[in-house]
Amino acid sequence: NAGVTQTPKFRVLKTGQSMTLLCAQDMNHEYMYWYRQDPGMGLRLIHYSVGEGTTAKGEVPDGYNVSRLKKQNFLLGLESAAPSQTSVYFCASSRGHSMNTEAFFGQGTRLTVV
Amino acid sequence: QQQVKQSPQSLIVQKGGISIINCAYENTAFDYFPWYQQFPGKGPALLIAIRPDVSEKKEGRFTISFNKSAKQFSLHIMDSQPGDSATYFCAASKASGTYKYIFGTGTRLKVLA
Asked: How far apart are alpha carbons A33 and A68 in whole angstroms?
């Protein structure tokens, strides 16, 4: 049981390049989230999904796009990377049930945009 | 908009001491308040959580105190150990509607041996 797996773990991009971060969960969770973590800012929600085929904006969605074509996968795309997107990105998933809303996090992807 | 305010930003405690981290929230619709623990290079992991129908929850050396009227909750780590050195995040979410977690800015705890 792998839980939440993020690919890749590290990446360096040049300004203007594009890339996709992949998140996969094997817990059959309905809800999935993408966060970014910056020093002194905590975890900020970028986008989230409440089920296959659905996506919604979080606190800081600009410059990012997401897709949830399969229940187990949640992709985060950067169309034209900017230095301000240098961050550690975390994917998380949760069952979303009112009695069990624990979020399980992946190990993170450290992205540097130069 | 920061809906969950966390303090202090960093904390140094002697081994065996008590670590206290505080959070305050604004949205009275929040009804689930977890604390997450994050070690360097790892993702956050759930440590302990509380719902507003109780004022305190204890799991081992970790206790959450909850004050609904003041819209505040805190994490107490008793008999702090060097292995507790990590970053701690408080969070809040609503059980109804979408399950969005709003996190605090984090507290970096260092327990001195």
From this structure: 11
The residue behind tokens 């992205």 is: A111
On the question of pLDDT at B64 being above 70, the answer is yes
Chain B hits for A43, CB-CB cut-off 8 Å, are 44, 89, 101, 103, 106
Q: Do A40 and B99 touch (CB under 8 A)?
A: no
Pairing label, strands A109-113, A87-94: antiparallel
- In the DSSP assignment, the letter for residue B93 is B
Confidence of residue A101 (pLDDT cuts 50, 70, 90): confident
Contact A90 B44 (CB under 8 A): yes
Going by C-alpha positions, the residue among B92, B80, B103 that lies closest to residue B11 is B80
In the predicted model, what is the mean pLDDT of chain A? 93
pLDDT score recorded for residue A99: 56
3-state secondary structure of B83: helix
| Helix or strand (DSSP H, E) at A47 | strand A42-49
Which residues from B are below 8 Å from A45, CB to CB?
Answer: 100-102
